[in-house]
Each structure stands twice: as structure tokens, then as C-alpha cells.
UniProtKB/TrEMBL annotation:
InterPro entries reported in the protein's UniProt record: Phosphoglycerate_kinase, Phosphoglycerate_kinase_CS, Phosphoglycerate_kinase_N, Phosphoglycerate_kinase_sf
Lineage: Eukaryota, Viridiplantae, Chlorophyta, core chlorophytes, Trebouxiophyceae
Protein's name according to its UniProt entry: Phosphoglycerate kinase
Keyword Transferase: yes
EC number(s) per entry: 2.7.2.3
Residue numbers binding (2R)-3-phosphoglycerate: 109, 191, 224
Length: 470
């Protein structure tokens, strides 16, 4: 969630104008899925979080996202005062918010966590709340502390929220022992321990040491089998889904299991290695795949084009080649930008110019899609009936490189009136549409980018699978 300059890698190979990959398409229709409690409205829009907690659809005894799990899963809404009062409840949320220093630039994920927290507080639980923030590499780092979310949580919850400097250990034990019913204690970033992402059993046990009940409300991280999303469930009495997780699954499952067609997926952003694998199954599901952001340069390099010092995942170049071939053979369109905005350094005030996509000079890097690409992407998007978008088209945090992202956001915003389903997923993508002022025009704002893409793949999300059956 912190801006990172692309790794500088020199490109060798022929200079050539890039061509988007276009071909006729054949896509098999999937069968409709029966669903429970789905609502076809954005829950961050006008109806917002209040309606979310009050909606009867969100208090079903069971819910089931059949793309993901065999059995229906238990929800926090199944637990009443008799189950929660005086109990220590460990809540794993996704509070991985975009930050500018210590300022939260988009609080969507914090707001999204509120309904579950309010429900637990009002039922007298002692709430231990934790999350990851960013991807710290080697232990605690101040810039990855959860400190900035505490005042915002306090404001939204209307109760005092305390925080520890660690997520396990003596300080946590001591603070938990003096907690009163209805209090909230934030535990520090779980990724300060490498054991978190390794799903280490001992670490998971320590995380769960004080809690009787585990609530997973971290949809954005449900595709990770980590100690706080999966391992911990083995060390508590019961594990249930939070309202956000439930809401996301119910909505997305319906929207992507039987999408209205043409179905277009837009994939951008900078988590190339996390997301490039998803394209394989998208080829089987979507009619059009539009690529932007940092995703594109690995594809351009795979075509032997010049990418300068743009973000490239060298070890994914072969995969990019394969994906291009697979798409061609299946008749699916993978649409790449034809022009890009380049910069002479990774900086808001860098010199910039627009060049054909495959002609980035050495020392320059692509930080946005260009105006011709905006137009051709816009044409494809405007002819779609379902659009899912994860990953900004450029470094939208810098004004100079934000135009492509905001232009695509505007195109999507205009489709709502025509009844097109528009789904935006991912911390930064949501921040971008919020910044563009069009979030309330989308059908669904999802707190998970990678998670919603994996859902789209039909993969089992480990954070969901680990919960108790209803
Ligand atoms: N061409 C690019 N080069 C480097 N970074 C980029 C580029 N385009 C977009 N980004 C960055 O990608 C980040 C978001 O990526 P990602 O985490 O994959 O999206 P999301 O959070 O929506 O899932 C943004 O911070 C943006 O600045
Ligand atoms: O921001 C997130 O994912 P996203 O960018 O795919 O939406 C989640 O917090 C998961 O973070 P991770 O991709 O570092 O595991």
C-alpha cells in the first residue's frame, strides 16, 4: 500500500510498435448458482454500512458461496448475546489501507470492518482486532504499524480503542486480562512475524491463545492461507465469518458465477506475480481481458518490445508468452495498451511524455496508459454487460500519471445507468475510484482485489474453507 518504484531492469531486444492482441472469442457459459442473501447493490454507497448491519439478508442463519466451499459456513450473525457476552473474540480484518505517511488516504477497509465490530461490541464481547498492513520484509517497521487506523476506528465505533505494540506475548496477555466487555484492543501488524505468511502452527496457536471465538472478516486476505486467516482456526472453539466476508462472497459469487455477457475483466496494478496466474482461468471465463498498470510490461517484454525501466517480473515472462498463446487458441481477447505515459523517474514531478507502448527508451518507465488506449479500452468496456476491475491503470497517486485510471473509472461510472454490473476490487483500485468521486456509481465496491480475482477463478479461499460449517 506504500508507493514503490519499479525495479530498474534494462531491456534488450528489438524496438517495435506494440499491437494489441485481438481475436474472435468463444466463451463457455457457466450454469447459474443458487445463492443465499445476495443483494445487487453497492453497500458502500448511499445505503451504506448502517443498512448493511440492519439488512435481514445479512443475518441469515447460514450462508454459502457455492463456488468456494462445499458446505454452508457459520456467520457471526448466528451468535447472540448468550454466545458472545464476556467472550474474547479474535477478529481478523483487512485494515491494509493506503497511507500517505501516517495519513489514511482511503478508509474504505476500516469502514467495512465496522458492522461486525459493532455487533460484537453491542453483544458484550471483548474484541481483539488485528490485520496485516503492507508487506513488511523483516520484522517490525514503523511505517507498517497499525497505529494510523486506531483513531479512525475509535471515531467510527464511538468507543475507546487501545492498541498493543505486538500481536502476541506478555503485553497482549496482560491487556486482555484487564479488558471489559464491549472493549476493543487492536493487536499490531501480524506480518511483523514471518511465521504469519508461513502459516506457522506455533505462531497461530499464540495468536489464538486468549480467544474462544474467531471471526474472519478479512475478505481482502481470504485468499491467503496465513496463520491469522487459516492456522488460528485450529486453536479456538469456533470460527465464523464476519458480515463483510459474508456480504462480499454472497455478492461476488452471484455476479461472477453467471455473469451477464459480454464479460470484461480489467487487470492492472503492481502485484504482477500475485495476479498474472489468475489470467489463465480468466481466459476461460471472460470475453475480454484488458491489461493495464504494471501488468503490461511483462507482456511487452515477452513480445520482445522495449520497456525501459518499467516494472517487469522477469520470471513471469514465459508465463506471459504462454498466456498470450492460450488466449489466441481459445479465441479470447487480451487487450493491451497501444500507448503509454512514460516518466524519467518514479516521482510525482518526473518529466513525462506519451509514446507507443512498445517504444519506451532506456531510462524511462511506463507509469500510465495513454489517451489512445483509454479510447480503445473505453470502447470495449462500454460494450460489456459485466465488468470486474482490479488494479489501477497507472500510478494514480501521482497526478501526472492518474489520467488513465480516472478516465477508465469515468467510463465504468457511466455504465451503471445502463444496468451494466460494475465491480471494483482491491485496496488501491477502490481508493482510485473514491478519489475519482465515482465509487457510488459502481454496482459493488469490493475490499479484495486478489481475493475477488481468485473467487472469479473458482478457487477455494482458504480463509473461508477453514471456518466452521453452519
Ligand atoms: N505502471 C505502473 N508501474 C508501477 N506501479 C504501478 C503502475 N501502475 C499502477 N501501479 C501501482 O499499482 C498499485 C496498486 O496495485 P495493486 O496492489 O495490484 O492494486 P489493488 O490494491 O487495487 O489490488 C498502485 O499503488 C499504483 O501506483
Ligand atoms: O491489499 C490486498 O490485496 P489486493 O491489493 O489484491 O486488494 C490485501 O490486503 C492482501 O494483501 P497481500 O496481497 O499483501 O496479501
Amino acid at each position: 500500500m506504500h508507493l514503490q518504484a519499479p525495479v530498474v531492469r534494462r531491456t534488450v531486444g528489438p524496438l517495435a510498435a506494440s499491437q494489441p492482441l485481438r481475436a474472435p472469442r468463444v466463451v463457455a457459459q457457466r450454469q447459474p448458482q443458487a445463492l443465499v442473501g445476495r443483494e445487487q447493490t453497492s453497500f458502500f454507497g448511499a445505503t451504506s454500512l448502517k443498512a448493511f448491519t440492519q439488512s435481514p439478508a445479512l443475518r441469515p442463519a447460514k450462508f454459502s458461496s457455492r463456488l468456494l466451499v462445499e458446505a454452508a459456513k457459520k456467520s457471526v450473525g448466528d451468535l447472540g448475546k448468550q454466545d458472545l457476552e464476556g467472550k474474547v473474540v479474535f477478529v481478523r480484518a483487512d485494515l491494509n489501507v493506503p497511507l500517505d505517511g501516517s495519513t489514511i488516504t482511503d478508509d474504505t477497509r476500516v469502514r467495512a470492518a465496522i458492522p461486525t465490530l459493532k455487533y460484537l461490541i453491542s453483544n458484550g464481547a471483548k474484541v481483539l482486532l488485528t490485520s496485516h498492513l503492507g508487506r513488511p520484509k523483516d520484522g517490525p517497521e514503523d511505517k507498517f504499524r497499525l497505529t494510523p487506523v486506531v483513531p479512525r476506528l475509535q471515531e467510527l465505533l464511538g468507543v475507546k480503542v487501545e492498541k498493543t505494540n505486538d500481536c502476541i506475548g506478555d503485553e497482549v496477555a496482560q491487556k486482555v486480562s484487564s479488558m471489559q466487555n464491549g472493549e476493543v484492543l487492536v493487536l499490531e501488524n501480524v506480518r511483523f512475524y514471518k511465521e504469519e505468511t508461513k502459516n506457522d502452527a506455533e505462531f497461530a496457536k499464540k495468536l489464538g491463545a486468549h480467544a474462544q471465538i474467531y471471526v474472519n472478516d478479512a475478505f481482502g486476505t481470504a485468499h491467503r492461507a496465513h496463520a491469522s486467516t487459516e492456522g488460528i482456526t485450529k486453536h479456538v472453539n469456533q470460527s465464523v465469518a464476519g458480515f463483510l466476508l459474508q456480504k462480499e462472497l454472497d455478492y461476488l459469487d452471484g455476479a461472477v458465477s453467471n455473469p451477464k455477457r459480454p464479460f470484461t475483466a480489467i487487470v492492472g496494478g503492481s502485484k504482477v506475480s500475485s495476479k498474472i496466474g489468475v489470467l489463465d482461468s480468466l481466459i476461460a471465463k471472460a470475453d475480454n481481458i484488458i491489461l493495464g498498470g504494471g501488468m503490461i510490461f511483462t507482456f511487452f517484454k515477452a513480445q520482445g518490445l522495449s520497456v525501459g525501466s518499467s516494472l517487469v517480473e522477469e520470471d513471469k515472462i514465459d508465463l506471459a508468452k504462454q498466456l498470450t498463446e492460450t488466449a489466441k487458441s481459445k479465441g479470447v481477447e487480451i487487450i493491451l495498451p497501444t500507448d503509454v505515459v512514460i516518466a524519467d523517474k518514479f516521482d510525482a514531478n518526473a518529466n513525462s511524455k506519451v509514446v507507443p507502448a512498445g517504444e519506451i527508451p532506456d531510462g524511462w518507465m511506463g507509469l500510465d496508459i495513454g489517451p489512445d488506449s483509454v479510447k480503445s479500452f473505453g470502447d470495449v468496456i462500454s460494450n460489456s454487460q459485466t465488468v470486474i476491475w482490479n488494479g489501477p491503470m497507472g500510478v494514480f497517486e501521482f497526478e501526472k500519471f492518474s489520467k488513465g485510471t480516472f478516465a477508465i473509472a469515468d467510463v465504468l461510472a457511466g455504465l451503471g445507468e445502463k444496468g451494466v454490473t460494475t465491480i471494483i476490487g482491491g485496496g488501491d483500485s477502490v481508493a482510485a475510484v473514491e478519489k475519482a468521486g465515482v465509487a457510488n456509481k459502481m454496482s459493488h465496491i469490493s475490499t479484495g482485489g486478489g481475493a475477488s480475482l481468485e473467487l472469479l477463478e473458482g478457487k477455494v479461499l482458504p480463509g473461508v474453507a477453514a471456518l466452521n460449517d453452519a
